[in-house]
Amino acid sequence: MDVRTFFFIILSSFILLLSCYAAKPSLETKVALLNQASSQNLGVVELDSNLYDEFVAKPRNYSMAILLTALDPQINCIPCKEFDPEFRLVASSWLKSGNEPSRLYFGVLDFKNGREIYTKLGLNNAPTLFYFSPSTGPYAKDVSEPYKYEFNKYGFSAEAFASYLSGVLGTPVPVNRPLNYFAILLTVFLILGALAFIKLMYPLIETVVRNKNTWAAISLASVYDFFAKTMCEKFYVTLRENNNHFKLCCPKDRTDSAIPYCAV
Ligand SMILES: *[C@@H]1O[C@H](CO)[C@@H](O)[C@H](O)[C@H]1NC(C)=O
User: Fold this and answer.
1) Considering only CA atoms, which residue is closest to atom 11 of ligand 1?
2) Is 61 touching ligand 1 by the criterion CB < 6 Å?
3) Is the Cβ atom of 104 under 6 angstroms away from ligand 1?
4) Both 101 and 187 in a single domain?
5) Which atom belonging to ligand 1 lies closest to the Cα atom of 27?
6) Residue nearest to ligand 1 atom 5, measured at CA
7) 224 with 144, same domain?
8) Fewer C-beta neighbours within 10 Å, C or N terminus of the chain?
9) 20 domain residue, yes or no
10) Tens digit of each residue's pLDDT, the chain (264 residues)
11) What is the DSSP letter of 77?
12) What residue ranges are annotated as transmembrane (predicted)?
C-alpha cells in the first residue's frame, strides 16, 4: 500500500466518522439544541423533516409533544389554525412554569417543512399530535410507539391538551392564559356608561316612578292580562265547540299571552 492510498483510507474513514457523528447527535447535543430552541421561541421548537427525525430518535431522556400541522392559507386547515395558539400557550406556560425544562419539549412540524415525514408516516390529515415518552433516564417508559392525541376525544383547548399531558407525563402541566385586557376594559366602560346614563336619566325615572298614572297603567295592564288569559281559554274552547263559528281565537301555545286574539 502506497502512502497516497494510506492517506486516502485515513481521510475517508475520518469523513465517514464525521458524517456519522453529524447524522446522529448525542443526547447531550440534542438536549442542548432543544433547550436553546425552545427558550428562544416561547417554548416551541420549530422543526423540519431532519430535525424531527433527530429529536424523536432514541435515546431520549425527555418527553416530546409534536404537532404536525398545516398553516399554509392555501391548505386552509381550520382546526390547525384553531389549535395552533392553544398548543403554543401550553408550551409557553410550561417554559415559564419553573419545571425542569428537559422533561418535556414542544415541537411543531408544518406540512410545508415536513412533507417527507407526512409521507413516511402516511399521514393524510392535520393537525396530528404525537407524544413521545422518554426511552432512557429517570422517566423512561417502556413504549416504542408514540401516543396519538385524540382531538375528537379530548378537544382543542389548551386546558384539555394540558390535562392530557399531565396524565401521560405524571406531572401537572399548567396553562397560564393571559388576561384579555381589551375585554376587561370594554366591560368596565360599559358598566361606567350604564351608570352615567342612569344618573343622567334619574330625574325622569323618578318622575315616572312617582307618577300615579304609571301605577294606574300597571294595575290596568295586570287586570287586562288576567281577563285576557281567561277569555283566551274560553274562546279557544268555544271555537272548537261551535265548529269555527267564532272569529275570535287564541292559539293553543299563547293562552298565557296578553294578546288574546288572532285572526282565523
Ligand atoms: C437528559 O440528559 C441531559 C444531558 O445529559 C441532561 O442535561 C438532562 O438533565 C437530562 N434530563 C433529564 C430529565 O434527566
Assistant:
1) 102
2) yes
3) no
4) no
5) 4
6) 28
7) no
8) N
9) no
10) 666 665 655 555 555 555 545 567 889 999 999 999 999 999 999 999 999 999 999 899 999 999 999 999 998 999 999 999 999 999 999 999 988 888 999 999 999 999 999 999 998 888 999 999 999 888 888 888 899 999 999 999 999 999 999 999 999 999 999 888 888 899 999 999 999 999 998 888 888 888 888 888 888 888 877 777 776 666 555 555 555 554 455 655 555 555 444 544
11) -
12) 181-202
CATH classification at residue 121: 3.40.30.10
* Grid-cell match 287586562, residue found: 224
Residue 48: Cβ-neighbour burial (10 angstroms; 0-12, 13-18, 19+) = middle
Q: Name the amino acid, one letter, at 72.
A: D
How far is residue 194's CA from residue 184's CA, in Å, rounded to a whole number? 15
**Which ligand 1 atom is nearest residue 28's CA?**
4
| Ligand 1 atom, smallest distance to 134 CA | 13
102 lines ligand 1 (CB under 6 A): yes
Shortest-distance Cα residue to atom 3 of ligand 1: 28
Q: Residue 63 forms beta bridges with which residues? A: 104
Q: Is 31 in the pocket of ligand 1 (CB under 6 A)?
A: yes
CA dihedral 62, 68, 69, 74 (to 10 degrees): 140
Full domain range(s) for residue 264? 217-264
